[in-house]
Amino acid sequence: MSAPAPYTVAALYEFRSVDDPAALQAGLREFTRDLGLCGTLLVAPEGINGTVAGSREAITALRAHLESLGFLAMEYKESESPHAPFKRLKVRLKKEIVTLGVPVEPRRQAGTYLSPAEWNALTADPDVIVVDTRNRYEVQAGTFQGAVDPGIDSFREFPSWVDQHLAGQEGKRIAMFCTGGIRCEKSTSLLREKGFQEVYHLQGGILRYLEEVSQEDSRYQGECFVFDGRVTVGHGLTPGGGEMCHSCGWPLRPDDLQSPLFERGVSCAHCADTTTPAQKAAFRERQRQYDGGLL
């Protein structure tokens, strides 16, 4: 018996004015109804964003459809997963396709894009401030050498962090990165509005970097957290060795799995003290049903 075909996973976004986001949402729901896709597509007045998975044919059809709707400049990348990385497809209407919470103009004044090779050359300079714009739990899985971790729990916290930690360094060169590039469209635009002149970001984010750069030439340490069932990916975008705590969502390293506070599906060292015995019992029952194929 031949092995089932792997799922093609497409990560995409494009900042583009959408006159009627609700109509676009409805149209995408109708188009994708019978494609067998899973994942999430976000629609907002400022564009689209999403990570979806399905058969090779279904992903090709979705990309062609989006291009027919005028999304011709998508930041788009593909990888594979041996299993369905999401449970179902959701097409959601949002105010922003990535929520910063303050108005910026990414289409007009985002920072300078860098290819992976250009990124390596720039970030090797110790005078360049390299900033990881992701949430702190994502950083735990891996990051670039020498990168500053703002320690944020959501992107909404990033503008305040900039005001507190980068003010007065407008003359410095700032290099920013995130998972797929979309956060940096806004974070670099934010810095440009605040008077920073030399602002750069890694085009396509960590995912494109890991796809194109060999491990020998890489400045990235660890794996990249992804928001799907793979948990992490490594160089070549192959599924990594990460596991997620299904109680708090924290990516777990091998030593985390050895902690006496770790119980699969119930708790880890990061959240064991934050949930009640009743909550743990509910998580334990959920895990039992999952292991038994009931979920």
From TrEMBL:
Its EC number is 1.14.-.-. Keywords: Oxidoreductase, tRNA processing. Gene3D superfamilies: 3.30.70.100, Rhodanese-like domain. CDD domains: RHOD_YceA. It comes from the Bacteria. SMART domains: RHOD. InterPro entries: Rhodanese-like_dom (IPR001763), Rhodanese-like_dom_sf (IPR036873), TrhO (IPR020936), TRHO_N (IPR040503). It catalyses: uridine(34) in tRNA + AH2 + O2 = 5-hydroxyuridine(34) in tRNA + A + H2O. Residues 124-218 form the Rhodanese domain. Pfam families: Rhodanese, UPF0176_N. The keyword Membrane does not apply. HAMAP family: TrhO (MF_00469). Belongs to the TrhO family. PANTHER family: RHODANESE-LIKE DOMAIN-CONTAINING PROTEIN 7-RELATED, THIOSULFATE SULFURTRANSFERASE/RHODANESE-LIKE DOMAIN-CONTAINING PROTEIN 2. Catalyzes oxygen-dependent 5-hydroxyuridine (ho5U) modification at position 34 in tRNAs. This is tRNA uridine(34) hydroxylase. It comes from Deinococcus hohokamensis. The gene is trhO.
